[in-house]
Amino acid sequence: MTKKTNGDRPATQADLAGAETALRSEMAGMKTVLRSEMSDMKTELRSEMSDMKTELRSEMSDMKKELKADIARVAVGLVKTQDRLQRVEENMATKADIRTVIGHIDGLTKGLSSYEYRLAVRKHQLQDHERRIDALEKS
């Protein structure tokens, strides 16, 4: 790179040394500014991450509370359902209970059939006795 001064003359070593010193000084200043900006960004990022962490913890805590409330409602519903089911089981007749009742009804039906048969036979016998008594009274 050549620096031209006063016309078309090439830059001298002294000119280049001065430019080099100026550039080094400017680069050192930029380096300091960049380090400062990077430090500020680092601090800002840490602060934002800390805020996000706090916010996430708060949201997770709220979600935990909601889940606990939901679980409590489900547990109460389950207990109520189990209680109702237990009452139904206690009041409902089982197949064995129904078989026992049907067995007793069958026994009563057989007994009634037998009683009706004996009643019919006795009615016939009574009519036969009445007929004989009438015959004896008439003779």
Indicate the topology.
Layout (H helix, E strand, L loop, with lengths): L12 H79 L3 H44 L1
Describe the structure.
With 139 residues, the chain is mainly α. It folds into 2 domains: 10-92; 94-139. It is 88% helix and 0% strand. It is built from 2 helices and no strands. The chain has helices spanning 13-91, 95-138. The chain is rod-shaped, with a radius of gyration of 57 Å. The termini are far apart. The relative contact order is 0.03.
Compute the separation of the termini in Å: 172 Å
Largest sheet: none
Low-confidence segments? none
Indicate the proportion of strand residues: under 5%
What is the average per-residue confidence, as pLDDT, rounded to a whole number? 90
The value of Rg in angstroms is: 57 Å
Helix percent reads over 70%
Query: Could you say how many structural domains there are in total?
Result: 2
Gross geometry: rod-shaped
Number of helices: 2
**SSE sequence, one letter per element:** HH
